[in-house]
Amino acid sequence: MDTTLQMPESALPQGPVILLGVLKDIHNLGILILKHALERGGFHVVNAGAMLSQAELIGAAIETGARAILVSSSYGMAALDAEGFRGKCEEAGLKDVLLYIGGNLSVSRQNRKWEDIEGEFKALGFDRVYQQNVMPAQFIADLKHDLGIAA
Question: Is 146 a catalytic residue?
Answer without folding.
Answer: no
